[in-house]
Specification:
This protein is 0% helix and 55% strand. With 99 residues, the protein is an all-beta fold. The N and C termini lie far apart (40 Å).
Amino acid sequence: MDERRSHRRYPLDLAIRCKVLKNGLLVSGRVHDISSRSVCFVSAETFPVGTVEGQVQLFMDWPFCLADETARVLTAWGSAVRTGSQGIVVSFRRYEFHR
């Protein structure tokens, strides 16, 4: 099977918190894999696909130190593009690291 993704995905087992800004729904789970454009995570909870872009906010305690060697939190904004038995996929509009 040919890989159609244009951005390489990296497997990662990491806690994630997701907030739907429109209604305040909070979803937590575990990251399955991540790329520079999206993340796939599994959760016992779910939310509707097609959430307006910019309405979903993600928080992950980043497990790798950056240049200054301090722990960071990755915060990302985007929209859910797929939900199902294999997980929730959120496409990033933007992301930033915070101390």
